[in-house]
User: Which sequence fits this backbone?
């Protein structure tokens, strides 16, 4: 077994955590600016709910709360606000009329796509400002980070046109 040279030694965990936290501040700021530029009345959690409904389709309140990892009462308050804003619609489940299904309206889907386009454009600017020699390592590191978190990888070709991958 060969020994690592000092330049090949893995970074200490606290160094990696600091780098991820710093990068997450950048990404949160980009997300917040993208949302504010399109729809300044939505909160980030409300936007996330719209994304889940846009990408996952109709769901029940309990299913939505579970996907968002919030209490059903919290999900209901968000649904009420988004419904009032015309971005979420309640419909009866055709299989069981007692069950209410929640869906993003066309207005809600337009907001999701506009915000996602802005976010993608701003992230593209940051990535293209990075030195070329660091880009491959960044892709590998972020893929490993997502894998460790159990997050499914997004197909890179989804960003090759108007197709906008979701956020769940």
Assistant:
């Amino acid at each position: 077994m060969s020994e690592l040279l000092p330049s090949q030694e893995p970074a200490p965990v606290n160094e990696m955590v600091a780098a991820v936290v710093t990068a997450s501040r950048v990404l949160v700021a980009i997300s917040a600016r993208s949302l504010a530029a399109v729809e300044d009345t939505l909160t980030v959690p409300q936007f996330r709910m719209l994304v889940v409904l846009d990408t996952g389709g109709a769901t029940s309140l309990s299913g939505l709360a579970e996907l968002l990892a919030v209490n059903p009462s919290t999900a209901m308050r968000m649904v009420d606000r988004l419904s009032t804003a015309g971005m979420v619609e309640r419909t009866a489940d055709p299989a069981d009329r007692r069950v209410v299904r929640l869906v993003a309206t066309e207005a809600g889907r337009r907001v999701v796509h506009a915000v996602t386009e802005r976010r993608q454009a701003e992230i593209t600017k940051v990535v293209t400002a990075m030195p070329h020699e660091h880009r491959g390592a960044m892709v590998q590191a972020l893929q490993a980070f997502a894998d460790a978190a159990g997050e499914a990888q997004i197909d890179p070709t989804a960003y090759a046109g108007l197709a906008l991958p979701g956020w769940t």
